[in-house]
Specification:
BED-type domain-containing protein, 3-stranded antiparallel sheet, Znf_BED, 305 residues, 60% helix, two-stranded antiparallel sheet, DNA binding, mainly alpha, zinc ion binding, 5 strands, coiled coil
Length: 305
């Protein structure tokens, strides 16, 4: 049962409940590890529409189970209401039947000739009305506990009146209440030596594992959540690293192309300078073409040198 007396939704079995660093209630999806507020509407919307790790067959099976559980709950409520009505009607009908039986019995006694007159007169007197059976009254559990507590307190006060040593308001009992219990954590901390390390207190929650509820420490839950976040960051870094490696290879290829272009330009410049020196020395153009032929890639005009 959740707060307000309502039954917990069946969607909670697919989420891991806990608290975040601010102390707010959160729920983590068992399929995609997404963290959200522990609200049934948000969780049901995530499970039925948003979670990419839940297939359609699983969703359909869960909705069928939910309808089945709702039908069972409605049938149980109707059966309980019928039992209450049957108990109430049985108490009223029981009183009516008893009255009719009493009147019928007196008539039978008067009609019998073997019965004396004084017996007939006694039987003809109006029989007292039967007391109807008490209708059961449902008392809330909180009220019953409060009544039991008040009764126990009253009994303690009555005992204390006869024996002052047992009074709950005595100074000795007040002093004993202030002292920590023998097995409490406060007593263990006080008994601990100064050199020993203090163990951190941890809280736990229930989680359904293989159909059985098991208690999971919140500290372990925080570690698991931190581990999942680190794994996500690691995947993101690996992806970023792959992108940078690809960019690095592209830059290396571009750098090699640039170096090759620079080498070709340098060779072309040297070739053009040599052709110019030969031409200035008076060497015929045919011999220059034979010695230093102009390659197709060297399209730089000689007038620019």
């Amino acid at each position: 049962m959740s707060r307000g007396g309502r039954k917990r939704s069946a969607i909670w079995e697919h989420f891991l409940l806990g608290r975040n660093a601010d102390g707010n209630r959160v729920a983590q999806c068992n399929f995609c590890s997404r963290i959200m507020k522990s609200q049934p509407d948000r969780m049901e919307n995530h499970f039925l529409k948003l979670c990419a790790h839940v297939d359609a067959e699983h969703r359909r099976q869960w909705m069928q189970d939910r309808e089945h559980r709702a039908a069972i709950a409605r049938a149980a409520a109707a059966l309980k209401q019928q039992e209450y009505e049957a108990v109430a009607n049985g108490a009223v009908l029981g009183g009516t039947v008893s009255g009719v039986a009493a009147v019928a019995g007196s008539s039978a006694v008067a009609a019998d000739p073997a019965v004396p007159e004084y017996a007939v007169a006694a039987s003809s007197e109006v029989a007292p009305a039967p007391v109807p059976a008490p209708v059961p009254v449902l008392v809330p559990a909180a009220k019953r506990n409060a009544n039991a507590t008040s009764a126990a307190a009253q009994e303690d006060e009555e005992v204390a009146q006869h024996d002052p040593e047992l009074s709950t308001t005595s100074p000795a009992i007040k002093k004993a209440r202030k002292l920590p219990a023998k097995g409490s954590s406060v007593a263990k901390k006080r008994q601990q030596q100064p050199g020993q390390t203090q163990q951190r207190s941890s809280f736990s929650i229930l989680k359904e594992v293989n159909g059985k509820p098991e208690r999971v420490e919140l500290e372990n839950l925080r570690l698991m959540r931190a581990e999942s976040e680190l794994e996500g960051q690691e995947l993101e870094l690996k992806k970023r690293k792959a992108e940078l490696e690809e960019r690095k290879s592209e830059l290396q290829i571009e750098s090699m192309r640039y170096d090759n272009d620079m080498k070709r330009i340098k060779v072309a410049e040297e070739n053009m300078l040599a052709r110019k020196r030969l031409r200035d020395a008076g060497v015929p153009q045919e011999e220059i073409e034979m010695l230093l032929p102009l390659r197709p890639t060297e399209s730089v005009p000689e007038t620019l040198i």
